[in-house]
Amino acid sequence: MSETLFRVMLRLQIKPGMEQEFERVWLEVGDSVTTHPANLGQWLARDGDEKGVYHIMSDWVDEPRFREFETSERHLEHRKKLHPYRSGGSMSTMHIVAHLPGTAGCAPAEAATHEAWEAAR
After folding, report:
1. Domain-located, residue 10
2. What's the total number of domains in the chain?
3. Domain assignment present for 78
4. How far, in whole angstroms, is CA 5 from its chain's centroid?
5. At how many degrees (to 10) do helices 73-82 and 63-70 cross?
6. Beta bridge partners of 91
7. What pTM did the predictor assign?
8. For residue range 23-60, what is the model confidence (pLDDT) as tens digits?
9. Which residues of 59-78 are buried (b: 16+ CB within 10 A; e: fewer)?
10. CB 17 within 8 Å of CB 84
11. What CATH number has the domain bearing residue 67?
12. Where does the ABM domain lie (predicted)?
């Protein structure tokens, strides 16, 4: 298995009327993910087309370290806190094979991911 940057993308359908509460709780419990030594950051995005749909992107130094986190007690507790807001969802995983920075450069939230990507190359 290639030791490359690993990205996890979740698609979550949130129960109607619970979107703001979901966003608040996601921000409150996010450090249970971002403080893991292998996590490079995560992003929460509200879908522009589908009401109540959110996407969470999370970058990891490699897949084995993510899988270690995925089965940890820390992750199970995190999921329990967000589960009441979900009515459905899915997960996609991917290995980043290339990164082309845009003309505007890296936003502060992306700087650590970019640096990790460069270091891993």
Report:
1. yes
2. 1
3. yes
4. 13
5. 70
6. 10
7. 0.80
8. 999 999 999 999 999 999 999 999 999 999 999 999 99
9. bbbbbebbeebeeeeebeeb
10. no
11. 3.30.70.100
12. 6-94
